[in-house]
Amino acid sequence: MKLSQLELFCLVVEKESLSEVARLLYLTQPAVSFQIQSLENNLGITLLLRSTQGVCLTAQGALFYRYAKEIVKLNKQMQLVLEQQAYDKENIVIGVESNAGNYTIPRLLGCFKKQNPNLRISYQLGNSKTVREWLQKDLVDLCIVGNVISEEDRYISNPFLEDELVLVVGITHPLSQKNQFDLDDLTTTPLVLREKGSGTRQLIEERLLSRGVGLRDLEVAMEVPDNEAIKEILQSGMGAAFLSKWAIKKELELGLLHEIPFVDSLFQYQIFMVMRKERKDIATISGLMEFLKKRKVSKYNLTCTG
User: Fold this and answer.
1) Which helix (H) or strand (E) holds 251?
2) So what's the architecture of 164-268 in CATH?
3) 306, 275, 304: which is closest to 292 by C-alpha?
4) Could you point out which of 23, 74, 124, 254 has its C-alpha 20 to 30 Å from the C-alpha of 245?
5) Residue 195 per-residue DSSP state
6) Do domains 89-161+269-303 and 164-268 have the same CATH topology?
7) Bridge partners (DSSP) listed for residue 281
8) What is the pTM of this model?
9) For 215-228, how does the pLDDT look when each residue is reduced to its tens digit (9 = 90+)?
10) CB count, 10 Å around CB of 62?
């Protein structure tokens, strides 16, 4: 008697159909029937009654199903515990949205690594769409993204940082003399935008549409998939761009770029930490999330606690 046969048997009982199980597992119906027959032969009892309407349990089959289901459940629990232990000892994979986290997370991860020297941390960077796909496909343990991810039944989300998109220009640009901008400024200024799929671009489109302005109303001069490249373009004096205040902190301090906030809080947003619910009992992952919650924030500067 094999564990795979018990799993197959339980699935047949739950679906009440050999053909349905065959379809779900990409097997032929005779292959499924053979495995059930083999299990019955091994036990020396009849487990299922077959008919044109499907299958149903015999009295002995019902008793066997109770124990088979428990064995399958215990096996899954055992595998989860072993996987958790492997995670605890070896690796955390964190996916970071380039705009939301790349200018905030690295220093904090360095602090966390110093406190956990035996832990290996894998840091993956992508735009908003890519990072969310990593999380959905279970390719990362924790992700840092702008704006919350839906499907609350699958994920645990915690606010991490507040951020704001500001209009940024080079210090020689005509708009560098302004300390606030309004929507009229946007219609006459060549813009450098992030690529489609970027959280920054999605936020810009959504917030502008709330004011009755679409991208078609603006002069989009360039689309660039990297904040660092956009900052270099702006320093040449060409165009303006919406960038995170965290992303331009160093350039503002060095006097390389000029920020122009919007007249109200239209472009403020929240950065979130998100993990799958099944990861919450893994000590290293939940520990990292708690560590990130305790960071100190002051005037767009982050420091570690402890």
Assistant:
1) helix 249-253
2) 3-Layer(aba) Sandwich (3.40)
3) 304
4) 124
5) P
6) yes
7) none
8) 0.63
9) 888 899 999 988 99
10) 12
